[in-house]
Amino acid sequence: MIDNMYTVMKRINEIRGRFGLNRRHDAGAAAAREARNGYRELQDRAVNSGKTEKGRPVDREIAGIRGTTVEEIRKLADHYAAKKHVPPALVRAVIEAESNFNPNAVSPKGAKGLMQLMPSVIKDLGVRDPFDANENIDAGVSLLRDLLSEYGGDYSKALAAYNAGRRAVNEKGGVPDYPETREYIKKVIDSYIKNSE
Prior knowledge:
The chain is mainly α and 197 residues long.
């Protein structure tokens, strides 16, 4: 029982570290290097988990999946996460926080689909149908990958930029003090922890 508790606590601290919740604000270059190395490790795990037991690419696993059920959406999320080297649990957490697995979701600000793509993102990434689960998740994971790369693997900054935009994060030099964005990051972290167990 105690061993299980230590294992769970170690995992929680590992996840908290990925989101920058364990490190001091003045940690500087060492913390950034640690975040990059942690992200690279996660990329490797995502790539490895994106293969079947026989080593075939996951593309065959999603043939014919339309993404109309939560289970199908999770399969698509895992596929695109592995393909683009993003942790699958993080992609599922973003989908849950953004649309609660509703492919037809539309926000009051005009964001569309499972990963709530804004019109500018839809245009920039060449998405033809933002309500198509495959296209939406493919584009959303591409955006998430780019943000993680841009912010050196710092999940909090990447999620803040996903929610509030790059400009808000860059002007603030970190997570902007918007209640909606801070609540969004907390919601994704909670879901990420749940999806990682």
